[in-house]
Design goal:
16 strands; RNA_helicase_DEAD_Q_motif; globular; EC 3.6.4.13; RNA helicase; nucleotide-binding; alpha/beta; P-loop_NTPase; 17 helices; Rossmann fold; single chain; 2 domains; 519 residues
Length: 519
């Protein structure tokens, strides 16, 4: 990093925040609304009254091979890859690492990681982000979007002055969940270490001490859930005076979780001429309004249609069953699939996740549960065991349905059907993930009971749009409605999925039930 162009640190008076040396203070973890009242003492910064030092944010130098692409070639590539761009002067895509704008040390890490080519969203997203313009990206989890904003962030940071004692980050990534924040931080560490770029992760449900220490040592990149970040800002531990590259990851999910007030409070602490990138899996009117409020003349890239849909690489199976049938149906599926296949089973409640995990472990399956009531250490452990394949069954609430970066999930089971079709799509999207070699095939099995009647017709549309089978009972129920009675005692039977192994160990509560028995 060189030593020119950054915000003038003395421009912002120190009384724009409340100082508190009590490390254990603040709001702590508040479930989905982590830090719901944090930041209430932060004063809005009157940016119009400040003189800000200019900084550089356009670092894109187009490779001659990219420049040589004709408009028709660009159009054909975008159509084949379902890329839709909106805005003026959209850069051409970068189709290979050889013509990418990244320095040799970053490219070396990319090649060692086994990546053969950029994903579609990376090809189009990299030049857009490096151009210094505000960007809206609409892409599903698993599309490679994280590297679409992380690698350009490294280039941006290199061009800024080194951090000085008391400085906050240069790049801030806001994330809806601890799991997604941790996964993003892993990518930052993976690709940033060679550049000497430090990153840290801030989230509720974990002690503040280690997070405070990492901030005080200095971190060019901070990935944070909104509540914990506001807690630490409120305590005066860090500040956002140096942020010139802001990312809002999974913006739709953050709004779903009620984080809009926190996001607005945070953005008010960041200079208005920053570069802002907003990523979202969907594009509802609430996210559009957020983009209008926080982005300046953005360019937009969509992967696939703006209509939310399941990738073609997921086989969707809906089984119309009663509540009492779901456990045996689940056991039958697990007994029939390959023992090495990773499986995520979604339940609607924390208690339901624990109860099902106990049943599966008693029946000999090495299942582990993850939800918001688990301690952070246990949640981290479960994710690591699942990623490493030492545990191949994860029972989860929706806390893990978005942002969980685990390759090769072969089966998703919706034990409890979600409240809305959007959540259904996000859940089943865990299977059939994008990999370096293309898409992996996946299967999603969903148990549909009469309690989910309100989404019947929407579900049928999703199935038909993806050219999937619609069970006759589901169709009948769509037209008979609640007055048509409940489903028959026996749901439709589906063909084999492939024995399942046993073994492993638990931790606490449901995760501590001995495999094959116990109370």
């Amino acid at each position: 990093m060189h030593t020119t162009s950054s915000i003038e640190l003395s421009a912002i008076p120190p009384d724009t925040r409340r100082y508190n040396s009590a490390y254990s203070g603040g709001s702590g973890y508040r479930g989905a609304n982590d830090g719901a009242f944090a930041g209430e003492h932060l004063k809005d910064i009157q940016w119009d009254n400040l003189t800000l030092t200019k900084f550089e944010k356009n670092f894109y130098h187009e490779h001659p091979a990219v420049t040589a692409m004709s408009d028709k070639e660009v159009e054909d590539w975008r159509r084949q890859n379902e890329i839709i761009c909106q805005g003026d002067n959209i850069p051409k895509p970068v189709l290979s690492f050889d013509v990418s704008p990244f320095p040799a040390d970053v490219l070396d890490v990319i090649k060692k990681a086994g990546f053969k080519a950029p994903t579609a969203i990376q090809s189009q997203g990299w030049p857009m982000a490096l151009s210094g313009r505000d960007v809206v990206g609409i892409a599903a989890t698993g599309s490679g979007k994280t590297l679409s904003f992380i690698l350009p962030a490294l280039i941006h940071i290199r061009a800024q002055p080194f951090l000085q004692p008391g400085d906050g980050p240069i790049c801030l990534v806001l994330s809806p969940t601890r799991e997604l924040a941790n996964q993003t931080q892993e990518e930052c560490a993976r690709f940033g270490t060679s550049s000497g770029i430090r990153s840290t992760c801030l989230y509720g449900g974990a002690p503040k001490r280690a997070q405070i220490d990492s901030l005080r040592r200095g971190a060019e990149i901070v990935i944070a859930t909104p509540g914990r970040l506001l807690d630490l800002l409120d305590m005066g531990v860090t500040n956002l005076r140096r942020v010139t590259y802001l990312v809002m990851d999974e913006a739709d999910r953050m709004l779903d979780m009620g984080f809009e007030p926190q996001i607005r409070k945070i953005v008010g602490q960041i200079r208005p001429d920053r570069q802002t990138l907003m990523w979202s899996a969907t594009w509802p009117k609430e996210v559009q309004q957020l983009a209008r409020d926080f982005l300046n003349n953005p360019i937009q890239v969509n992967v696939g249609s703006l209509d939310l849909k399941v990738t073609d690489h997921v086989k969707q199976i809906v089984k119309c069953v009663t509540e009492g049938q779901k456990l045996n149906e689940t056991l039958n599926i697990l007994r029939s699939i390959d023992k090495h296949s990773r499986v995520i089973i979604f339940t609607k409640s924390k208690r339901g996740a624990d109860d099902l995990t106990r049943e599966l472990r008693r029946d000999g399956f090495n299942a582990l549960a993850i939800h918001g009531d688990k301690e952070q250490r246990e949640r981290d452990y479960v994710i690591e065991e699942f990623k490493a394949g030492r545990t191949t069954i994860m029972v989860a609430t929706d806390v893990a349905s978005r942002g969980l970066d685990v390759k090769d999930i072969r089966v998703v089971i919706n034990y409890d059907f979600p409240m809305c079709v959007e959540d259904y799509i996000h859940r089943v999207g865990r299977a059939g993930r994008k990999t370096a070699d293309g898409y992996s095939e996946g299967t999603a099995v969903s148990f549909f009971t009469d309690t989910s009647a309100r989404v019947t017709r929407e579900l049928i549309k999703v199935l038909r749009d993806a050219h999937q089978d619609v069970p006759p009972e589901l169709e009948r129920y769509a037209y008979s409605g609640p007055s048509g009675g409940s489903f028959s005692r026996y749901g439709r039977s589906y063909g084999g999925y492939g024995g399942y192994g046993r073994g492993g160990h638990g931790m606490t509560g449901s995760n501590n039930i001995p495999i094959g028995g116990g109370n």
